[in-house]
C-alpha cells in the first residue's frame, strides 16, 4: 500500500513514522508513506497558500490550485488506476473501524490535510473522493486527523501486526467493546484480579469475557449493539444481563 500525505506541516508527521506499528510496517515494506509539502505546489511570489473568502467574512481559505497540482503530480505515478483521495474535514463522514478496514484494502491513498478556516469548496467537490471526519470536534488542522486515520489503517494491512487473532477480538472489529485485561501483580493497592482469571477454567474465562464485553458495551455504548450480529451465546448472555438490570 502507498499513502501520500499532502500538508503544509510535513514535519508534524515525522516522529509518528519513526515509532511503533507504523515504523514496523515501513521497515517490512508493507506500506510506503510519503510526505508532500503543499507549499512546493504554490507558484506565486510569496508562496501564498490561502486567500480571503469571496463574499467576505473572517479568516482565510486555502486555495484550490496547490491541492489539485499535488494530487495530479502524485497520481501520475500511481500504482493504482484510481487512488482514493481523502480530505480530512469535520464536515466529512464519520470515521470508524469499518471504514478503516475498507481503506486498508486499497492500494493507494492520497490524504489531504486542511488548515485555517477552510479549503476552497472545489477541492471538496472535485478532487476528494472521500471526505472524512474523525469526530464531532474541531481540530486546528487535518494533520491530527490524518495521523489517527493513517495509524488505524496501517495496523490493519495484512502482515503488519504479527498476531491476526488479536485483531479479531479487539474492540469494534465485532462491534463490541473489549473485555477487561489484567496482568501481574495479582493484587495492586488492594485491588485484586478477578478470581476467575486465575482459575485456569478456560471455558469459564471465555464466558466471563463475553459477559464483561457485553456489560461494558451496554453501559457505555449501547448504540454499538446490533442483536443481529451477535452469536446465539452472546444473545443469551445479553438477555441475562438485561434481566438482571431490570430487577
Ligand atoms: N479537521 C478539523 N477537525 C477535524 C475532524 N474532527 N476530523 C477530521 N478533520 C478535521
Plain-language structure description:
With 247 residues, this protein is of the alpha/beta class. The chain is built from nine helices and nine strands. It has a five-stranded parallel β-sheet. Helix 4 crosses helix 6 (142-154) and helix 8 (202-220) crosses helix 9. The mean pLDDT is 94. The structure holds adenine. Adenine is lined by residues 88-90, 133-135, 137-139, 142, 145.
Mean pLDDT: 94
Strand content: 15-25%
**Quaternary class:** single chain
List bound small molecules. Answer: adenine
Number of helices: 9
- Helix vs. strand class: alpha/beta
Biggest β-sheet strands, sense, barrel: 5 strands, parallel
State the end-to-end distance.
52 Å
Residue windows where pLDDT falls under 50 for at least 5 positions: none
| Record field, number of beta strands | 9
Query: Which range best describes the helical content: under 10%, 10-25%, 25-40%, 40-55%, 55-70% or over 70%?
Result: 25-40%
Amino acid at each position: 500500500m502507498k499513502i501520500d500525505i499532502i500538508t503544509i506541516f510535513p514535519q508534524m508527521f515525522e516522529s509518528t513514522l519513526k515509532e511503533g506499528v507504523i515504523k514496523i510496517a515501513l521497515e517490512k515494506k508493507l506500506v510506503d508513506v510519503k510526505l508532500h509539502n503543499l507549499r512546493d505546489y504554490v507558484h506565486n511570489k510569496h508562496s501564498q497558500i490561502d486567500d480571503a473568502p469571496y463574499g467576505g467574512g473572517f479568516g482565510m481559505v486555502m486555495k484550490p490550485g496547490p491541492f489539485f497540482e499535488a494530487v495530479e503530480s502524485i497520481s501520475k505515478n500511481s500504482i493504482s488506476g484510481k487512488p482514493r483521495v481523502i480530505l480530512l474535514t469535520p464536515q466529512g463522514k464519520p470515521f470508524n473501524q469499518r471504514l478503516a478496514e475498507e481503506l486498508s484494502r486499497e492500494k493507494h491513498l492520497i490524504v489531504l490535510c486542511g488548515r485555517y478556516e477552510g479549503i476552497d469548496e472545489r477541492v471538496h467537490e472535485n478532487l476528494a473522493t472521500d471526505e472524512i471526519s474523525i469526530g464531532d470536534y474541531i481540530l486546528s488542522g487535518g494533520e491530527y486527523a490524518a495521523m489517527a486515520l493513517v495509524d488505524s489503517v496501517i495496523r490493519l494491512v495484512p502482515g503488519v501486526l504479527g498476531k491476526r487473532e488479536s485483531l479479531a477480538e479487539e474492540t469494534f472489529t465485532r462491534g463490541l467493546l473489549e473485555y477487561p485485561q489484567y496482568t501481574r501483580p495479582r493484587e495492586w493497592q488492594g485491588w485484586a484480579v478477578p478470581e476467575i482469571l486465575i482459575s485456569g477454567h478456560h471455558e469459564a474465562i471465555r464466558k466471563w469475557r463475553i459477559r464483561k464485553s457485553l456489560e461494558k458495551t451496554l453501559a457505555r455504548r449501547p448504540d454499538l449493539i446490533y442483536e443481529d450480529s451477535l452469536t446465539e451465546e452472546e444473545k443469551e448472555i445479553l438477555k441475562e444481563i438485561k434481566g438482571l438490570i431490570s430487577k
